[in-house]
Amino acid sequence: MFERYTEDARRALFFARYEASQRGNISIESEHLLLGLIREARGPVNAILAHFQVMPLILLREIDARRAPLKERVPPSVEIPFSRESKQVLDGARVEADRLRHTHIGTEHLFLGLLSDDKSVAALVLNQQGITLEAARDQIAMQPATASLSSGTAAVVDSRLQVIKHLVRQLSRADRNGSEAVELVARIHQAVDALKPHLQ
Predict the structure, then answer these.
(1) What CATH fold (topology level) applies to the domain 7-151?
(2) More confident residue, 181 or 9
């Protein structure tokens, strides 16, 4: 099930399991996945939060305010399954990766998966901070770097090519003489320059 996941995404899932166990939960919920992504301190998720000027500490406080009091910790030997809600998030992450035509599933796709279930605790907390699914999609598409892709150069190249394709599609719809077109051309050049070191 997790063959397509990058090392960073797998670490985020490990941290999600840890968060659930520390709080005495018998299943991994969407808020645990969000906490796992926050703990995985590298990559595009932190860039998204920074773009929206959202501090991880604020998210932690919001999640804590919405959850039941802590219970006795679950021992590491006890298996903690994903809840139905979290399984929907994981499926949403796969859908988002496929939509972007990425061969991998990274932390950015997990983040989009969280936002795709707008009734989950994680999505409600993120929406409250002004982060919507569409806004996060746009931000991910514009990121020239994909630091979470530690599964190999091929995955990095694939991701950055998708960014370039997205920019080219936007350029095809833009007014050729407008400022948007000039900005998009500049971003395409930046994305190509960021790709070059991985092709040498």
Answers:
(1) Double Clp-N motif (1.10.1780)
(2) 9
Q: How far is CA 72 from CA 21, 23, 25, in A?
A: 9, 7, 9
Closest CA relative to residue 114, chosen from 42, 49, 26, 159: 49
Tell me the domain boundaries of the chain. Answer: 7-151, 152-200
CB atoms under 10 Å from CB of 187, counted, come to 18
Residue 196 has pLDDT above 70, yes or no: no
CB burial class (10 A; 0-12, 13-18, 19+) of residue 2? exposed
In angstroms, what CA-CA distances link 131 with 10, 27, 89, 96, 144? 23, 26, 16, 16, 20
Residue 74 CA to residue 78 CA, distance in Å, equals: 7
Contact (CB, 8 A) for 52 and 130? yes
Mean pLDDT of 125-140: 91
Give tens-digit pLDDT for 144-188. 544 444 445 556 666 677 778 778 888 888 887 778 888 888 888
